[in-house]
Structures are given as structure tokens and as C-alpha cells.
Amino acid sequence: MSSSDFIAALRGLSHRYWGTHPFHERMHRGDLSEDELKIWAANRWYYQCVLPQKDAAIISNCPLPEIRREWLDRIVYHDGARTGEGGTERWLRLCTAVGLDREEVLDQRHVVPGVRFAVDAYVTFARTKPWLEAVASGLTEMFAGHLMQRRVADMLANYPWIAKEDLAYFTNRIDKVSGEGKGTLDIVVRHAVTREQQEKAIAALSFKTDVLWSMLDAIERAAAKE
Ligand SMILES: O=C(O)c1cc(C(=O)O)c2c(n1)C(=O)C(=O)c1cc(C(=O)O)[nH]c1-2
Questions:
Q1: CATH number, domain at 206?
Q2: Which of 21, 93, 147, 177 to mutate to test the pocket of ligand 1 (most atoms within 8 A of CB)?
Q3: Domain tally for the chain?
């Protein structure tokens, strides 16, 4: 495939992205109850927790120093340079804003099996597949910037108890993701040079859209019981 056909095939998976999941649509419309928002935040915490381990798995499988160097930043971004900083901490702030105690988030008591299975599958993918496929699976970030922008606006408009500062996780991430999304695409296009590698990269991105979709299916089910 030419680079442009390859990129078009990757972008063509956008319809599988979780932006159109019914639970996200309800969230954006302002239809979630306080308890449903809590379930969402506490479950997504599990995803936030494992991202650095997923990224560390990519680094450990990658023989190329320039890729490892570039990827390292992601771990520090989420974990922070020291305790109390970083994306994970910003997620915790959002959790407390929606009414959760730190403790009930940290001990993962609200994490439902379907979320755990989906997120663990993402980490296992990164641990066991060639590094390039694991990198390609992160390309959902190509679709994330726009969605997060909408989310910030919609949450501020529809959930009066959430303040702009509580959404620092997303506002901070929006800037980061536009750069990272492009960087990741560059890496994938540069290193997937055979048809087979390109097909595997497309399959990896498709797998990741399934991971995210399954997470929201499980969250939606758990929220319906509230
Ligand atoms: O809020 C979102 O919709 C959203 C989506 C995604 C994504 O598409 O994978 C990520 C994030 N947020 C995010 O904040 C984040 O740090 C992140 C890391 C990754 C990844 O696969 O390494 N995806 C995402």
C-alpha cells in the first residue's frame, strides 16, 4: 500500500471508535446521573493505571533506541516526575470532583470484570506482540483529540458540579494527544514497510477499538444497575 492508502485505511477505522458509543453519547448529552458518572470515572481509573505498564512493555520489546527514547515520555506523563503529579493524579482529581473518595478509586472496588478483562487484554497485547503492532494499537489517539474537546465543553455545560479545573486531565491531554497522535502515526508509517506489517498495524488498531468499546459496554451495564 502507498503511505496515503495505508493512512486512509487506519483513519477509516474511526467509525469503530468509542466516540460514538451510546454511553459516551449519553454522557455528552448530559443524561448521566451522578452515580453513573462515578461508575465511569472509577472504572476508567483502571485504564489510566495500566497505561504506563503498557508503554513500558512497548519499550521493553523495542530494539530501537530512538523509539524507546521517544516513548519514555509517555510513562513520565502519566506517572508524573514525582508523587502527586502527572496524568494519573489529574484523573484522581476528576474522580473526587464527581463525588468519589480517593480510597474507593485506589482500591479499585468499583472496577467491573468486563473493564478489567478489556484493559488487561490491551496490556497483554503490548507485552506479547511485536513492538510496532503495540505502537499501532495506540493510534486510537488520532481520534481522541476531537472527542476530548467535545467532552470538556459538554461536561462543563451539562454537569454543573464539575468545574473547569476538575477537567485538567482532558485539557492537558488534548494538547499532548495532537502531538503524540501525529508522532505515533509517523512511526507506524515509517516502520510498517511490507503489506503484511501494514495489515497487522490496521488489525492492531481495530483490536484497540474493540478494547475501548468493550470497556464502555461493561461500564454501561454496571451503570444501568445503579
Ligand atoms: O478520553 C478519551 O477518549 C481517551 C482516549 C484514548 C484512546 O483513544 O486510546 C486515550 C485517552 N483518552 C487518554 O487520555 C490517554 O492517555 C491515552 C493513552 C492511550 C494509549 O493507547 O496509549 N490512549 C489514550
A1: 1.20.910.10
A2: 177
A3: 1
